[in-house]
Amino acid sequence: MTARDSVVPSPLLAAGSPAGLYVASPDGRLVDCNDELARLLGYGSREEALASAELLLGGCLASGAGGAAGAKAPSTSANEGFLTRRDGSAVRVMRTETLTEARGERLVVGAIVDLSSSRCTEDRRRELSEELRQAQKMEAVGRLAGGIAHDYNNLLAIILNYTSLVMEELDERSPVQKDLAEIKRAAQRAASLTRQLLTVSRRGLAQPVVLDLRDVVRGMDGALRAAVGGAVELAIALGPSGCRVLADAGQLEQVVMNLALNARDAMQDGGRLSIEARAVRVGAAGGLHDAHPAIPPGRYARLVVSDTGSGMSDDVRTRAFEPFFTTKPRGKGTGLGLATVYGIVKQWRGYIELASQPGEGTRV
Predict the structure, then answer these.
(1) Residue 85 domain-assigned?
(2) Could you tell me which residues come within 8 angstroms of residue 345 by beta carbon, excluding any fewer than 6 positions away?
(3) Could you state a single Gene Ontology molecular function term (predicted)?
């Protein structure tokens, strides 16, 4: 009679335990196990694992239990290590085992906990906590910027209106006309900045229409090539199926152009800028959902802009979407490019992520 025949399956092993539970013979062969252990080992069911003649729980306490009769073996062990799965891959586990006897036969009762999944869950919890903190900070800064922009917009409207009135009253040949024109241009540039701030705070005026993201990118081909210059190779990839979104066409163009200009500035010695627009589906599990668990399942339009530039340090990356934050020299940037992108994406209930490492480029 074999050990498997002599042991009545334990109700504990049949229960829905989060750990892999098992009983093994002295040579490491399974006598009984639960479904969770079968899953950890790469089998479809408990019955399939138990029926496998090749399955051995190598490295278990049982391997030391088959020595000379009367030899004193340790009764309990606990260690962290790797478990080899059916496909040859290894998974990091915590393993606890106890040596016992049943009907005169030595057996090992053990439990295995998958540390890789628990650690991934903890890492993801920390990531989500950081994402929430960043979103709250962006919301607060955006509200402040939006409030200031609204007040400045009113003041600039007065300056522009009175400047235009004075210019109309004066003779066109008056030497003051040139000065007034400079005042008007400066006020218009300031008004443009306040519009960007209102976009950051998601309070800007927009005209939403249903459009295909691929058409937006396709229509910008010439403007993008002129903006990035000849030293940067531009590659545009468009998906085969419709990529419809409800958004403001001008704002989407601003998103694409801002990201392209940021990429160009990161490639002072030239490089490659890739822009991809396609429809994707986020499922309930696997693929994109595993990589982006905060995104509800469904069909989405995805825009990816990546470059081969200098990349960002962790400190810069965590602040990249903040209004007025810039690493460019004074006078070379307003610090509103990526902040505007963030505001537009959030205004249309989208999701945005930035991945970057020094020397490895950036992907948004």
Answers:
(1) yes
(2) 255, 351, 352
(3) phosphorelay sensor kinase activity
